[in-house]
């Protein structure tokens, strides 16, 4: 007799009029002629699980036909607490001695179907109520096979997540169904990313299918279709060498140095493509490789805590990193935390530690108490238990507990700014993660008290897919913290953490067991590579990377490529892979090997111009340069401002070089490389204090923007040449409100002298509304340059406006015919330009 769970048939409620968008790749076009010897229809209806089977039995076959039935409702697995088999692979701490750990937690999930895709209604981490396991369910597939008796077959990937920890165990389940019944459900777990607890789990159990319309089903289907469409294009890792043949890449280096059985997955994100390796399990390739759940472990110190700190700084100002921990964490309001800032804590330099040896505290009993504590109170107590041993910001000691403190401090800081009810993880989710189109797996996090409303761990407890890692690393590296054209992260902090500022490499770590030291800043590690590591590094290269427990690395090379891998055998050998990835041409993010490995089109373009130097203007435009994107932007900005200043100086008989000399830190990328101390210096800049800004690309760019704005604002109101010179070279420059107040004083002073504002024939200003009293002249619209009868009041800036009550006369358009405004119509408001709306009173650009 077939073992089927019969449920009463209840017609589904009427569907909304709007149809769901199709998922890319649908519909299936196979014939259904599938030859199957494992997990046959008979196996799923009356068989029993005696062990794990090949993962291919759960995969969508090439000949799969489109599904004839649609699943919508709740799937509940019955008897999970005692069912199934278990085999230990690695268990040094004897977890398997607890019987409940050998079985699935309660599983009851709502599912909808869009074509051949089966979608769980709840995505990301689900709190199951189990004492040991939580759950993540991914999108699966539905299809028909000729041997299934007209029923539709479903396969779903899922993952068990250790409660209060970050270990992930990936599995699969499968069943048959039609409109009124469901077969038994076969499940198995044959893979994990977990250094200390590895096992196989399998079983076949009864299930219940409760048909009902799932709330928001159309939205769920559309969201999943968009999720699949938004994934980065993927290619096999072998395609990296064929796509870039001139780079000379040996793709066998990727994944090398890691025990094959411990390697979950790996890949290279480069040029908008995710070049991926296989997702290996003990039963062959994982059929849902792009949905394999991967734990963050300490990658969260960058991708959560570091990103949040940079975003808070971008939104609320440069004072955020200098906020004190004790001011925002009530439990830390003690003398041990005096002077410890957000920045110190993000840099693992609080000065509170027991041992300064490399990660000795992290592996000690104090940190074990922190990791074991699930409730907020005991976890915070353990985080604050380390004694004060050094001044803040002076000594690097790695503590996951410090990132927990930082996350709590940033949570309370956000509440003070955004109001009660704000949550730091939901805030960064909405601000950055959702706009990056990351998977739903990363939109939730583990928290204290095993609760969806607890305090986020901060330093671990996130979950990713291959696509998420590729997108986040591109966001930090090649995209410079921008989404589209909007700068989301503080550019100075990000440039420092990404090793784009030679003067600020971060705090130096203590030596590890091999004697190596690293740099650490805002949750990012950095390692220096030289020719001793590989000949491809002809000069020292600093590579920022994220690192996680057990053997997880995402190395973001300065040519825009990222090499990542997830493993669980405590292996961190990625030097060979980094050297191969560094051969790729630069796509952004800093100095790379592009000068040695140019694309074929670039070399051909340069070579096709006989007699022209490769570094000539045209060749440089078509070929990637070795300078960073920030440096190239600074050079362009510098040229524009110097050109404007020099033109003004020549008109006034001044020395152009004295008014705006070239600062040494902004020389073109192909000149004066190397130690900044060897670059030429100018006395004017030494006196002006600009040399100390040379160390920070962000400060230099900000200074140049201010200087350019001041030049435009100060010139029309008759400021003396010497005053303009001082304003341009002053450290930090004038703030915009100062400029506006100065303009108002000048304008009010000149109102005491009768004057008229006139225009020549053919250049009259366009008038919005009724013409102001006393205005003479008329004609059709045209360009205009307004001139006051006093030669110093020359209005040329496009933002200038003349105000006459409710009538605006714009300097951007005009009418034919000469005309003048009578002296009685002039006012301070008439003579002032409209300041840019994006500047606040602080002189900082407003947050996007």
TrEMBL record:
Residues 1-19 form the signal peptide. Residues 610-620 have a biased composition (Basic residues). Residues 589-630, 643-684 are annotated as: Disordered. Residues 594-609 have a biased composition (Low complexity). Residues 674-684 have a biased composition (Basic and acidic residues). Keywords: Signal. This is Beta-lactamase-related domain-containing protein. The lineage of its organism: Bacteria, Bacillati, Actinomycetota, Actinomycetes, Kitasatosporales.
């Amino acid at each position: 007799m077939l073992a089927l769970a019969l449920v009463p048939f209840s017609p589904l409620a009427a569907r909304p009029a709007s149809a769901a968008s199709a998922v890319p790749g649908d519909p299936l076009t196979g014939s259904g002629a599938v030859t199957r010897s494992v997990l046959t229809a008979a196996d799923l209806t009356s068989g029993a699980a005696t062990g794990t089977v090949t993962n291919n039995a759960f995969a969508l076959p090439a000949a799969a036909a489109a599904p004839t039935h649609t699943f919508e409702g709740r799937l509940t697995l019955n008897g999970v607490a005692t069912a199934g088999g278990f085999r230990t692979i690695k268990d040094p701490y004897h977890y398997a001695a607890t019987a409940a750990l050998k079985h699935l937690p309660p599983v009851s999930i709502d599912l909808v179907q869009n074509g051949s895709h089966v979608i769980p209604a709840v995505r990301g981490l689900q709190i199951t109520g189990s004492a040991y396991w939580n759950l993540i369910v991914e999108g699966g597939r539905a299809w028909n096979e000729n041997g299934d008796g007209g029923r539709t077959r479903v396969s779903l990937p899922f993952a068990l997540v250790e409660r209060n920890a970050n270990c992930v165990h990936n599995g699969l389940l499968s069943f048959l169904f039609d409109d009124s019944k469901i077969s038994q459900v076969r499940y198995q777990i044959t893979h994990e990313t977990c250094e200390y607890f590895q096992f196989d789990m399998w079983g076949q159990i009864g299930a219940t299918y409760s048909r009902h319309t799932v709330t928001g089903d159309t939205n769920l289907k559309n969201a999943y279709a968009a999720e699949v469409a938004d994934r980065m294009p993927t290619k096999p890792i072998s395609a990296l060498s064929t796509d870039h043949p001139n780079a000379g890449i040996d793709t066998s280096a990727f994944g090398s140095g890691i025990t094959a059985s411990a390697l979950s997955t790996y890949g290279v994100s480069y040029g908008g493509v995710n070049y991926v390796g296989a997702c290996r399990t003990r039963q062959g390739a994982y059929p849902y490789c792009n949905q394999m759940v991967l734990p963050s472990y300490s990658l969260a110190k960058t991708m959560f805590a570091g990103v949040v700190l940079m975003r808070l700084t971008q939104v609320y100002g440069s004072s955020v990193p200098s906020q004190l921990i004790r001011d925002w964490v009530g439990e830390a309001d003690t003398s041990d935390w005096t002077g410890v800032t957000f920045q110190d804590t993000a840099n693992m330099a609080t000065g509170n530690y027991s041992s300064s040896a490399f990660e000795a505290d992290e592996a000690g009993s104090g940190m074990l108490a922190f990791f074991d504590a699930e409730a907020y109170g005991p976890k915070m107590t353990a985080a604050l238990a380390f004694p004060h041993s050094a001044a803040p910001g002076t000594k690097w000691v790695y503590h996951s507990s410090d990132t927990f403190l930082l996350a709590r401090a940033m949570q309370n800081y956000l509440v003070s700014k955004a109001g009660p009810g704000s949550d730091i993880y939901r805030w960064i989710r909405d601000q950055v993660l959702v706009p990056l189109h990351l998977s739903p797996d990363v939109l939730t996090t583990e928290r204290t008290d095993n609760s969806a409303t607890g305090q986020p761990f901060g330093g671990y407890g996130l979950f990713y897919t291959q696509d998420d890692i590729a997108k986040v690393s591109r966001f930090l590296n090649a995209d410079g913290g921008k989404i589209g054209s909007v700068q989301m992260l503080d550019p100075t902090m990000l440039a420092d953490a990404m090793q784009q500022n030679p003067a600020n490499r971060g705090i130096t770590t203590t030596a590890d067991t091999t004697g190596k030291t690293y740099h650490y800043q805002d949750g990012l590690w950095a390692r220096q590579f030289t020719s001793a590591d590989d000949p491809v590094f002809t000069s020292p290269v600093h590579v920022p990377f994220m690192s996680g427990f057990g053997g997880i690395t995402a190395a973001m090379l300065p040519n825009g490529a990222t090499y990542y891998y997830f493993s669980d055998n405590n292996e961190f050998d990625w030097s060979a892979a980094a050297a191969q990835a560094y051969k790729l041409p630069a796509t952004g993010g800093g100095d790379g090997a592009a000068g040695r490995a140019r694309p074929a089109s670039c070399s051909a373009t340069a070579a096709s111009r006989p007699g022209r130097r490769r570094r000539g203007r045209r060749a440089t435009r078509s070929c990637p340069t070795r300078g960073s994107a920030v440096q190239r932007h600074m050079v362009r900005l510098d040229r524009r401002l110097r050109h404007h200043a020099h033109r003004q100086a020549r008109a006034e008989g001044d020395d152009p070089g004295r008014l705006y000399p070239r600062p040494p830190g902004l020389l073109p990328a192909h000149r004066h490389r190397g130690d900044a101390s060897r670059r030429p210096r100018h006395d004017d800049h030494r006196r002006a204090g600009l040399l100390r800004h040379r160390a920070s690309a962000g400060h230099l760019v900000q200074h140049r923007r201010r200087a350019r704005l001041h030049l435009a604002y100060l010139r029309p109101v008759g400021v003396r040449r010497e005053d303009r010179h001082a304003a341009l070279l002053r450290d930090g420059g004038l703030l915009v409100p100062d400029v506006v107040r100065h303009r108002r004083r000048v304008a009010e002073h000149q109102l005491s002298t009768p004057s008229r504002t006139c225009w020549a024939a053919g250049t009259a200003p366009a008038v919005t509304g009724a013409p102001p009293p006393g205005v003479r002249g008329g004609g059709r619209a045209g360009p205009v340059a307004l001139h006051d009868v006093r030669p110093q009041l020359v209005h040329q800036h496009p933002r200038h406006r003349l105000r006459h009550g409710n009538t605006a006369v714009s300097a951007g358009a005009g009418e034919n015919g000469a005309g003048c405004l009578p002296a009685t119509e002039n006012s301070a408001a008439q003579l002032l330009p409209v300041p840019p709306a994006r500047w606040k009173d602080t002189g900082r650009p407003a947050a996007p």
